[in-house]
Amino acid sequence: MSIGATPTLDSYDYAGKVDLDALAESLKRCGGVILRNVANKEDLAQMEKDVRPHIEGDKVWTGSFFPAQTRRVTGLVSKSRTFVDKVIMNPVYQSTCDKFLTSYHEGHLGSEFVPCVSKPTLMNTIVFAIGPGGGDARNQPLHRDDSIYHIKHPEATAETYEYGRDVAIGFFLAGKKTTKANGATRFIPGSHLWPQSRLGGDHEADCVYAELEAGDAFMMLASAHHGGSANTTADEERLVLSCFMTKGLHRQEENQYLTHTLEQMRTLPVETARVVGYTLSTPSLGWVAFDDPIRILHPDIAPLEELY
C-alpha cells in the first residue's frame, strides 16, 4: 500500500448476519472494523453493575501510559459472567480470532509427520473508564499492542497479507456512547501493514476515531497503531469493556491462572475454560502431569492417550 492511501474503516451490523469472509477482508485491508449493535441495554447495564465497584476502587494512575483520569478493572473472567459471554465469547470475534490466530504445524515423529494445531487463547481483559479531563486531558501515546511479544513486522499490503502475521486481536465494546470528544480510540487505518521503521514520528494526522454508540464494538489487529484519546468533556465518562485474544503458542499478557481460582473457573463452560487457557496447544504445550489441563477443572473428561 502506498504512503498516503487510507483504507476505509468498515462497519457491520451485528443485528443482521455478519459476513465473516467480508469482515476478514476488511481487517486485512484496514486493520480494524466496527460492529454495530453487539450488546443490548440489559447486558450493558449488567456488565456495568458488575464492574462499577471495581472502577470506583481503582487507584489513580501515576505513570505516563494512561491519562490520570483513567480507571481500570482487570480479571473480568471472574468478575462478570455477562462480560465473558458477550465479549470474550462473542461468536463473530471468536470466529475471526480462529481465522487469524490459529497456528498449524507438522511435527516430525519418527518416519511420520504429525499435524499440530494451536488455537487462540485469552490474552487479557480490561475495562477502561476515562473520566472527564477538560483542559487537563491528554491523549495516550500511539502504540502497537503486539510489541509485548517483541514483534517487528515487515512491510506488507492487503494483497500480500497472510493469516498468521498477527499475533493478537482486540475487541472493544462501548459501555457508553464513545465520541472523539470523550476519548474514542485513535486508530490509523492500514498501519498494521507498516514496517517497524515507519512507526516513529508524528502520525496524529493519519488517525481516525472509532466513534461508537453504546453496545457497538471496535475489533482491531494488535499490529495497528492506535491509542486512547483525551476526554476533553466536562461531564462525560468513556466506558469501554475490552479483551484481546492471542496465539496459543504465546504467553498470555494477563496471568489467568493466578487471577482466578480453580473454583471460579469450574463455573464456566468447558469450551470457555479452554479459551481462557485451560487447554493444550498440540501436540504437547501446556500439559499438567502429561495430561490435558482441562482435567484439573473437570477430571471426568477423558485423559490424553498420547502427547503426540
Protein model, in words:
This protein has 308 residues and is α+β, with helices and mostly antiparallel strands. Helix content is 21%, strand content 21%. The strands form 3 sheets. It has a 7-stranded mixed sheet. Strands 9-8-11 form a 3-stranded antiparallel sheet, with no helix packed on it. It has a two-stranded antiparallel sheet with strand order 4-5.
Beta percentage is 15-25%
Q: Over all CA atoms, what is the radius of gyration?
A: 20 Å
Low-confidence stretches at least 5 residues in length (pLDDT < 50)?
Answer: none
Going across the biggest sheet, name each strand in turn.
1-2-10-7-12-6-3
What is the total tally of β strands?
12
Structural class: alpha+beta
Overall shape: globular
Count of DSSP H/I helices? 8
N-to-C order of helices and strands? EHEHEHHEEEEEEEEEHHHH
Measured as a percent range, the helix fraction is 10-25%
Structural topology:
Blueprint: E1 11-13, H1 20-30, E2 32-36, H2 41-57, E3 70-74, H3 81-88, H4 91-101, E4 103-109, E5 112-118, E6 121-130, E7 168-174, E8 186-187, E9 208-209, E10 217-221, E11 226-227, E12 238-246, H5 256-259, H6 262-265, H7 270-276, H8 294-297
